[in-house]
Amino acid sequence: MKITIPEDISDVTLDKYQKYSKLIERTDINDFEMNKRLVSLFCDIPYRKMDYVDSKDFAGLVEDIRTAINKDAKFVDRFTLNNIEYGFIPNFDKLTAKEFFDLSFYCNDEMSENLNRIMAILFRPINGKDTFGNYTIESYDGTEDRALAFMQMQMNVVNGALVFFSSLARELRLNIQKYTKVVQAKVEQLQTISQNGDGTQH
Fold this sequence. Notes:
Blueprint (H helix, E strand, L loop, with lengths): L13 H11 L6 H13 L11 H15 L8 E4 L2 E5 L8 H10 L8 H8 E7 L5 E3 L6 H4 L7 H41 L7
Antiparallel strand pairs: 1-2, 2-3, 3-4
């Protein structure tokens, strides 16, 4: 049986990483079953064939996979996927309202499930370069065109971007929490007005 083992995080796609994230959250299976699914996922071995893998090889595969997943990743500002070169947002000071709102929306409690959409906001096709290595990217028009394709992003690009983006992500979370409180206050105010008629005192 020919087995391909991920050597580091760059050999792991976002799609597989999201499946891995869901796998390690499971509490209905024991460690052995967990590791069987881990090896099956990352080494592309059908689960039904996992019982035929040599025990020594199995232990080594589990260790190699966990080592690869936990390797640090450096930030890269551009990458190529399906022959398209993508660049990280060059200037966060010039975020549009739509970019800011969508980032705020996807940076919620389900952030790990939204990573492909977050990446589709942070990285967009490069449409211009200069001799100094600077580049421009396409205007933001939503994530639908890229979200599915970005499931095949390499996780070193994703992790590097998240490290760079982490401070802004915290700011976005705080922003959406404040926004939610403001909306709730307005809803409560409208409910009070509705209960009191037109809201005026007589």
